[in-house]
Amino acid sequence: MIVQIGGSAVRGLEAAGRFGRFLADTGRALPDVGTWGRLLIVQMRRVGVDSLPVVVFIAAFTGVVLALQASYTFTGTVPLYIVGTVVGKTMMLELGPVLSGLALAGRVGASVAAELGTMKVTEQVDALETLAYDPYSYLVIPRVLAGTLMVPLVVAVGVAVGIVTGWLASLGLLDLSTPEFVKGLQFLYRFKDTWYGLVKSASFGCTITLVGCVVGLNTRGGAEGVGRSTTQAVVYSAVLLLVLDAFWAMVLL
Length: 253
Known about the structure:
Blueprint: H1 2-29, H2 33-47, H3 52-74, H4 82-121, H5 124-130, H6 135-173, H7 178-186, H8 191-217, H9 222-252
């Protein structure tokens, strides 16, 4: 038992050391704007624009479900315009960023890990170093910056879509008028609700892409290793998103 505990502790310290070295190498590559700058737009499109359909789809049905469930819960107890409050608050503070983040962890995180993992096992990363390219400025920084910049924008679109579909569901299914729904949106609203969700989304985007890069560049073992890294990237990202969600709630709320 002592040997097992010691071995686990050593492996944990080694992993922490590798991650620290990874962050240090990434920081040293930041001044190389000429390399990562021309790749940033491509990654922003891949991370942000290409992810819009899945985020919009999730947000649209989330808004409908929130409106219906709020109506079911509040009927006969509080004014029905509170449905607008529930839809707006929940989409901006929690479900919009978290559900979008989990969806992007599966789409973006897995894609980054698989792409970099394949490059690693086929020695393309070594080839970049041979050609005098820094793998961190060429592969890591464009993806991490794209995730940090684009995920908040994607989440903002998802939140807007969720509120609109909640409004449409309230009009068509709940007999709630537009002025009543807008009254509910304005009730208890704070500007903090908006920037809180965006700050949280930016941290989610950075985490998803950073985990994908770390796991992908540490891939070993051929095709099987790539599959294992892809799964690990999704699992690690999802767990870290939930931890960050609790962290930001404690710190900012």
